[in-house]
Specification:
By secondary structure, the protein is α/β, with parallel strands linked by helices. The protein is built from 24 helices and 30 strands. The structure holds iron/sulfur cluster.
Length: 703
């Protein structure tokens, strides 16, 4: 090793990718990131996956935005006109910060004053800090004047949040994932942690090696099945049938915890009555799991001393996503598998700060801490704190906002760090909406697909360039620290938000990020006893925490739930088919998701050298049987179509995928999976059905 490879500084921070929230150390030389090492954080114990360890050089990619851009006069916006980020000059020109901010603010004010506050909307980001999320939602609520604010939680766990708030009165996990070390049984359903929460997966595998019974429930035979005591590969979209089959066995055979049910739950009778007809024999043909297996798993789960359930977007991204989560909550509660070591309910959160951004109120129905915007008493508290009159009506969600743009109800938007032109379902519709906006301000580190439709583009800060807190899937509030300077004229997101807020009439004068944290936590009882200084000193604090000098609680709800009477609610569900089922014209099932090397819409990881070298090409994962039936070889091109669009991409043989199913990662703009997906929504969480729609797969003949 030469001198060039020795860092001159080490800066401790948190991984910018998934919700596991691994702590890491940036090793810096001459203000550049040299390499990254794992730090002994509570979630990762020094481990990192390939993204955390090698996916950091996106920050110095030549495509970083370093100057504000404004749309050139006379260049129209068209839904099918994506700008080449390497050559934005076809559509944009450089502006000074003053010109860009004035133009950004003037367009928003014009719409607000002419068409009313609800004609504006904002998408914040789960990739920024808690402080940024808090300020962003405050800007929309107090500066725009409506609750039209949302972010990508709507596309990942909104249904889980709806079910958890209804069932146990809290939207966060009841136990950290590390609690699996104390579990006799671990259930992982609708999740592929090896790819999506890789460091969490290592803890599950270690527990399995020590003898814990690992039960995997998934339509795909995920990599974790090698470690499983039982793999239940149920048919896509039949979660409710399978889970009701389990509930039927547990209740019929009186395996449930009668004392726990009596003390800590309500509506057990309704649940018991509802699941009576859902015998294993009735549910088996629907879900594809043998009755004996349903019985064996139900008995094992119910009799376990301690059992914990983890779930991912295979559960949540359905039109019945909330029902799926309700079933899991009921399963856990009737067996008394909550509130003790090794037990719990844990939706594995996706983005690095999706828990924190949701907690901070970046959602249209809640102020910070999940306080309803429609409750006048609560609203009065926030009006007093923020010094304005607030909109009493809940705002629109992500997909509803796109519909409202097409209906000319919403005409201006501010989008910070989100990429709906890649992440929304039915992209032709979503891109058409973005192109239809009268005024769009995009704040980001790259010229994303969404920025193609912008009137003003504001160059922002990457995660290793900023100070701020983030909250991971375990409820651990952790400190991110700036390791390197901002490139060119790029600015801190926090100060861009404040500048814009001031220009549209807000009287804000924050001078330090810690002031934002202090204001935010004063409005969030969940963050009691957590100060900025404490997080800076301890690197992480788990909420809830009972005092300034004690540790936070890894397991909650040992003595009841934060609902009226302290009891949790059991909610009965019925199996309903997905919104769009295969037919003669579209005989396949399309499911979408992520892969290990790429994150979300790929805006960062496809600009990270190692990650993009590992997975450079858009792929469709197909079973050996499907590949053979199509008469193609792995690597050949296939055309995948749905009623909404067509993409062409390389076939990859993956025997984890069942016959008749095609799985496409959604990170690739050249074959964007979301051109195909169905925007039908879960009625409670308003989450689209990314995990199921009818599709056609054909050999793509070379031109
Ligand atoms: Fe980052 Fe998630 Fe990988 Fe940890 S598991 S290093 S948080 S991407």
């Amino acid at each position: 090793r030469t001198e060039a490879y020795f860092p001159d500084r080490e800066v401790d921070s948190v991984c910018p990718y998934c919700g596991v929230g691994c702590q890491l150390t940036y090793n810096v030389k001459d203000d550049k990131l040299l390499y990254v090492t794992g730090k002994a954080g509570p979630a990762n114990e020094s481990r990192l996956c390939v993204k955390g360890r090698f996916g950091f050089d996106y920050v110095s990619n030549p495509q970083r935005l370093t100057q504000p851009l404004v749309r050139k006069d006379g260049v129209p916006k068209r839904a099918d006109d994506l700008v080449d980020p390497a050559n934005p000059w076809t559509h944009f020109r450089v502006a000074t910060w003053e010109e860009a901010m004035e133009r950004a603010a003037a367009g928003l004010v014009k719409v607000r004053d002419r068409d009313g506050p609800r004609a504006l909307a904002g998408f914040g980001s789960a990739k920024g800090s808690n402080e940024e999320a808090y300020l962003f939602q405050k800007l929309v609520r107090t500066g725009f004047g409506s609750n039209n604010v949302d972010h990508c939680t709507r596309l990942c766990h909104a249904s889980s949040v709806a079910a958890l708030l209804e069932g146990v009165g809290s939207a966060a996990v009841t136990a950290t994932f590390n609690e699996c070390k104390n579990s006799d049984v671990i259930v992982v359903i609708g999740a592929n942690p090896t790819e999506n929460h890789p460091v969490a997966a290592t803890f599950f595998k270690q527990a399995a090696k020590r003898g814990t019974k690992l039960i995997i429930m998934d339509p795909r035979g995920t990599a974790m099945k090698r470690h499983a005591w039982k793999m239940m590969q149920f048919k896509n979209g039949t979660d409710v049938a399978m889970l009701n089959g389990l509930l039927n066995v547990i209740i019929t055979e009186k395996l449930y915890d009668q004392q726990y049910v009596q003390t800590y739950t309500e509506d057990f009778e309704k649940l018991a009555e509802s699941v009576k007809p859902f015998t294993p024999e009735e549910m088996s043909p629907i879900c594809g799991i043998e009755p004996d297996v349903l019985r064996e798993v139900a008995r094992t789960f119910a009799r376990a001393e301690s059992a914990i359930i983890f779930w991912g977007m295979g559960v949540s991204q359905h039109t019945h996503g909330t029902d799926n989560a309700r079933c899991l909550i009921a399963l856990s509660l009737i067996c008394g598998q909550v509130g003790r070591p090794g037990t719990g309910l844990h939706p594995l959160r996706g983005q690095n700060n999706v828990q924190g951004a949701s907690d901070a109120g970046l959602i249209p129905m809640f102020f910070p801490d999940y306080k309803s915007v429609e409750n006048s008493e609560i609203r009065a508290k926030y009006e007093a704190a923020w010094g304005v009159t607030l909109d009493p009506k809940r705002g629109k969600t992500v997909v509803e906002i796109m519909d409202a743009i097409h209906a000319d109800e919403i005409k201006g938007m501010y989008i910070m760090g989100e990429n709906p032109a890649m992440s929304d379902p039915d992209l032709n519709h979503a891109r058409g909406a973005l192109a239809h906006l009268e005024h769009l301000v995009v704040q980001d580190i790259f010229l994303t697909e969404t920025a193609s439709y912008a009137d003003v583009i504001l160059p922002a800060s990457a995660w290793p360039e900023k100070n701020g807190t983030v909250t991971n899937t375990n409820r651990q509030v952790q400190m991110g620290r700036a390791a390197i300077p901002l490139p060119g004229e790029a600015r801190q997101d926090l100060w861009i938000i404040q500048d814009l807020a001031q220009r549209i009439g807000c009287d804000w004068n924050y001078t330090d990020v810690s002031q934002v944290f202090t204001e935010m936590s004063s409005l969030m009882p969940a963050l009691a006893n957590i100060s900025w200084d404490r997080v800076a000193r301890e690197d992480h604090v788990t909420y809830p925490v009972d005092g300034p000098d004690v540790s936070g609680r890894d397991v909650v709800f040992d003595k009841g739930f934060p609902r009226e009477g302290g009891v949790a609610k059991l909610v009965a569900t019925r199996y309903t088919a997905p919104d769009e089922v295969p037919d003669a014209e579209y005989p396949f099932i399309l499911s979408t998701g992520r892969q290990l090397e790429h994150w979300h819409t790929g805006s960062m990881t496809r600009r990270a050298t190692v990650l993009d070298a590992l997975e450079p090409t858009a792929i469709a994962q197909l079973s050996r049987g499907t590949i053979s039936k199509l008469g193609i070889q792995p690597g050949d091109m296939v055309r995948v179509s749905t009623r909404r669009g067509t993409v062409s991409l390389a076939a990859r043989q993956d025997d984890a995928v069942p016959d008749g199913v095609v799985f496409i990662p959604f990170a690739y703009v050249e074959a964007a999976a979301n051109l195909l997906t169905n925007p039908a929504l879960d009625p409670f969480g308003k989450i689209p059905e990314f995990k199921f729609c009818a599709a056609k797969v054909e050999r793509d003949e070379p031109i």
